[in-house]
Amino acid sequence: MGAARLQVLRVTGESGTAVIDVAGLDAAARSAVEQAAKDAARGAGLAELRVALTAEKRNRRILAVGSGKGGVGKSTLSANLAVAMARLGRKVGLVDADIYGPSQPRLLGTEGRKPEARDKTMIPVQSPWGVPMLSMGHLVQPGQAIAWRGPMAGSALGQLIEADWGDTEILVVDLPPGTGDVQLTMLQKYKPTAAVIVSTPQDLALIDATRAIGLFDQGKVPVLGVVENMAGYLCPHCGQVSDPFGHGGAEVTARELDLPFLGRVPLDIAIRQKSDAGEPPAAGEGPQAQAFSAIARSVLAALDQLA
């Protein structure tokens, strides 16, 4: 049974009851353990074996990734942060909480796949990059509009968060932009362990990022720091670096708010191309992967200090 441990076995006549500890096993492994126990019981001559699977509740940490406005690359950062942390040896899952505009299935190459369910609980979809994930994009038809009011969106978020995440230690939650119903539900019901804020260097984005930081402060959720996205563009033709969205604004804002600056990601066409192809740059090598890995190390160091 691998990591499973038989805790109790009672046999009465031709029937039996087994209690098996399956802490740390995912849904597929738990199903295999249960079936193996029943097969062994039949082989031993029992007509019936009732199996109870138990596991200690894991101290899973929720890491919210937020932004004050859309279009700053928050979802791309969330996906690559999760992949980078997984490459550093952490057991990481990803929830696409952007109910109205889910993009994580495209970013992590799981479009067209549907999650299975066990006892009315969803089982996350396994991405090719070692990160299990769930998104509304897995539950609706591609391109289908989701016209839900706040309570329905909150209920959908609950199904994603309360899925069977197995031995996942860190659950990265890609929040929608802004400070609306989904964010409030997240703060009030699921209380993230910490948050990361994503912004471009431009003033308008930083104003909204400050609002997002204020929301987490009100909810008493520690903000680990700020990531500056789309920071500098290296022209592939002339080799010159330009700053269409400015440069250093997020770092300055972090310093003014007495928050850590977690790093910056360049405006790079390779990141866009790989993301559209469902191949997160963090899963590869080169400067793009290194940028995400450096941010992941900073985030993990700050997150572990909260433990």
Instruction: Report how far the terminal alpha carbons are from each other.
Output: 32 Å
> Which structural category do the helix and sheet elements fall into?
alpha/beta
**Overall 3D form:** elongated
β-sheet strand percentage: 25-35%
What composes the largest sheet? 9 strands, mixed
Mean pLDDT metric: 81
Helix content class: 25-40%
The low-pLDDT segments are none
Number of helices: 9
* Rg over CA atoms: 22 Å
Order of helices and strands: EEHEEHEHEEEEHEHEHEEHEHH
Strands, count: 14
Q: How would you describe this protein?
A:
The protein has 307 residues and is of the alpha/beta class. It has 9 helices and 14 strands. The chain has helices spanning 27-43, 74-87, 104-107, 150-161, 181-190, 203-218, 249-256, 269-276, 287-306; strands at residues 5-12, 15-21, 48-54, 61-66, 92-96, 116-118, 121-123, 125-126, 132-135, 170-174, 194-199, 223-234, 241-242, 261-267. The strands form 3 sheets. Strands 4, 5, 8, 9, 10, 11, 12, 13 and 14 form a 9-stranded mixed beta sheet that branches. Strands 1-2-3 form a 3-stranded mixed beta sheet, covered by helices on one side. It has a two-stranded antiparallel sheet with strand order 6-7. The longest helix has 20 residues, at 287-306. The model has no long low-confidence stretch (mean pLDDT 81).
